[in-house]
Design goal:
Rossmann fold, 6-stranded parallel beta sheet, Sig_transdc_resp-reg_C-effctor, transcription regulation, Arc Repressor Mutant, subunit A, single chain
Length: 198
């Protein structure tokens, strides 16, 4: 599903996916409220979400989507890569953050990666996350949890796999976020990969 308040942008994005065999645009929305309504009926696997829209903005829509449809992956597609915008989006729990000047192939790859449970960040966003001061590396157990996150496992699955409680999984992730200086699972995976930790 494409969510953007500019019809021209939505048309352009739809055109980029028109002849891609494994990706289908199932819905378009012009703001966050419309996106939430359409998510119920269209059931998209991935949402490409603009950040700045009238009514309910991108971050507000992402937060509500995460609550009502946690299985839907959201990739931010915006013209803004300021630290504040990135931090708010990451904290809301996005699967990726791309800029609108991303080439067509990168958009296709981002949708596929997000659908498979992976994380995607624009280079400028990744380097901004990387330039934060480094804290101690995560412990071996924390990295085990993060590896499972990178494979797309939910907390419940991670708890089952590692024979620990969901609360313990959440605690490990909280420590990982603090040590890597990030605020979301997607950002943690990307930063850990960049540093060669996983």
């Amino acid at each position: 599903m494409i969510v953007d308040d500019h019809p021209v942008v939505r048309d352009g994005l739809r055109g980029m996916f028109d002849h891609v065999a494994d990706i289908e645009v199932v819905a378009e929305a012009s703001d966050g409220f419309e996106a939430l309504a359409l998510a119920r009926s269209a059931r998209p696997h991935v949402v490409l979400m603009d950040l700045r829209m009238p009514g309910l903005d991108g971050v507000g829509a992402i937060q509500r989507l995460r609550e009502s449809h946690p299985e839907i992956k959201v990739v931010v597609l915006t013209t803004y890569d300021t630290d504040a915008d990135v931090a708010r989006a990451m904290a809301a729990g996005v699967a990726g953050y791309l800029l609108k000047d991303a080439p067509r192939e990168e958009l296709h790859r981002a949708v596929r990666t997000a659908a498979a449970g992976g994380a995607v960040l624009a280079p400028s966003v990744a380097s901004a996350l990387m330039s934060r001061p480094a804290a101690p590396d995560p412990s071996p157990r924390e990295l085990e949890v993060l590896r499972l996150v990178a494979r797309g496992s939910a907390n419940k699955e991670i708890a089952r796999t590692l024979l620990i409680s969901e609360t313990t999984v959440k605690t490990h992730l909280k420590h990982v976020f603090a040590k890597l200086g990030v605020e979301s699972r997607a950002a943690a995976v990307v930063v850990a990969m960049e540093r060669g930790l996983i």
